[in-house]
Amino acid sequence: MKDNYKDLFNINPKYSTTAAFLIGLILIENMNSVEQNALGEWLILIGQTLITNSGFQIVIESRIKGNNININDKKVKSIYNPFLYNIKEIKNILNKIYPNYNNDINNLSKIINELKDKLNKKE
What we know:
The chain is 72% helix and 0% strand. The protein has five helices and no strands.
């Protein structure tokens, strides 16, 4: 299904915004205010569903990749809180504060690979 949307995500943002605006104007012509409100709320619900799902998916993917950190952690802010962030310095500080973070990810990855190997041997 993702292939069906390939062109949708390659459209110039100005064109897609203009197209959405024009579709909205066209829909206004044939609906009263109650129908417009109902359809608008329904479309907003679709958008909120997509946004909510993608937000949680991003959290899970970030945890898997091992780059989910809390930049608002009091320990980080008390050590390093400049106007512009130096990402390399923040990574060094976070590695000092959370030394086992990447080890945990690596251990989980090893366990998953071992389980995959065991499952493949059974087949």
